[in-house]
Design a protein that fits this description.
Two copies of one chain form a homodimer. By secondary structure, the first copy, chain A, is mostly beta strands. Chain A has a single domain, classed as Electron Transport, Fmn-binding Protein, Chain A (Pnp Oxidase, Chain A), CATH 2.30.110.10. Chain A is 15% helix and 40% strand. Chain A contains four helices and 14 strands. In chain A, strands 1, 2, 3, 4, 5, 6, 9 and 10 form an eight-stranded antiparallel sheet that branches. In chain A, strand 13 and strand 14 form a beta hairpin. Chains A and B meet through strand 4, strand 5, helix 2, helix 4 and strand 12 of A and strand 4, strand 5, helix 2, helix 4 and strand 12 of B. Strand 14 of chain A pairs antiparallel with strand 14 of chain B, so a sheet runs across the interface. Chains A, B: Keywords: Flavoprotein. Chains A, B: Its cofactor is FMN. Chains A, B: InterPro entries: Flavin_Rdtase-like_dom, Flavoredoxin, Split_barrel_FMN-bd. Chains A, B: This is Flavin reductase family protein.
């Protein structure tokens, strides 16, 4: 039985608030692709917007610009090897889902696939900002649907206790990641 | 003796690559301020650029727009309480360095102060992009100097083993953070 649950759009920013590495999935005209990206973050709360940096040289860039849509998938510790594989090859040369051992699954509101087995999903529609896209490889998008694995995200909060395999990945460099660790709190 | 070392500018993106919460410090015309921000990330490698989202309602916004400069400071686990304090009050009403228990120190190339005791520093000059600033509260800046604490960052890499108090903070919500945890790796 699936443990995926819809996340209210006003809470979607919390899926990226802690700075995880993401997988960007895209599709257009019968082709699909997935790539790793460390540079994604929230931009606004409600309606939720996100930022992601996607290099002009990538196959993902072609697909997402053509479709006007993409998804951000938040991968888990157990997927570290697949994330590095998805960040290494180019989807112009191979089927990166197959090459990375990742499985596509249907999204709710966009044509791009999601990556099965991730901890969270943000389905995104590009807000056209040609100057940012051309000058900085920077994309602004609205989040139109969000889901998360209720084992580690519920009530608007991440909770990884007892689910070490599902902890988020935070890219250091060269295929090395920190996983999200202990929780600490401060008082306002 | 200080453990701070200069970080080559081409490696500055690695100070933010793993998605830490930052403190934004700013100064103009004899006033200075510090605030917490979860929404900051790299935008480019060399020359290094970063993105940060700063709400129009903040005192920091006034100071950084007036000065054209600010610093991103990467705070540590032991500073979690101060980070929450710096994210709660407004610098328009009080001296937030004093109110948060944080100590300013001189930057290398900008007028804004740095926050003493952080693990890394990026001194930034704003690249004027009025549409992004007005429409999205989004700032693009070039990193003109970078430093890190050599106990936890050297040779272009973070290494927190044996330095738990210096681990980075990743904001979940409401003053709760994950700290950077174990390291995992994949093979390209």
């Amino acid at each position: 039985m699936s443990t995926l649950q819809d996340v209210p759009l006003a809470q979607a920013y919390r899926l990226l608030n802690h700075g995880p590495t993401v997988l960007v999935s895209s599709a257009h005209d019968g082709r699909q692709n997935v790539m790793a990206a460390a540079w994604a973050m929230p931009l606004d709360f409600d309606p939720p917007k996100i930022l992601v940096v996607i290099d002009k040289a990538t196959h993902t860039r072609q697909l997402m610009e053509a479709a006007g849509e993409f998804a951000l998938n938040v991968p888990c510790r157990y997927q570290a090897q697949a994330v590095v594989a998805a960040g290494s090859a180019s989807g112009a040369d191979c089927d990166k889902f197959a090459a990375s051992g990742l499985t596509p699954m249907a999204a709710q509101r966009i044509g791009a696939p999601l990556v099965a087995g991730c901890s969270a999903y943000l389905e995104c529609r590009i807000i056209q900002e040609p100057h940012n896209q051309q000058q900085y490889d920077l994309f602004i998008a609205e989040v139109v649907a969000a889901q998360a694995d209720s084992r580690v995200f519920s009530g608007g909060r991440w909770h990884f206790e007892g689910q070490d395999a599902l902890r988020s990945l935070h890219h250091v460099a060269g295929g090395h990641f920190f996983v999200s660790g202990d929780t600490v709190s401060g008082q306002p």
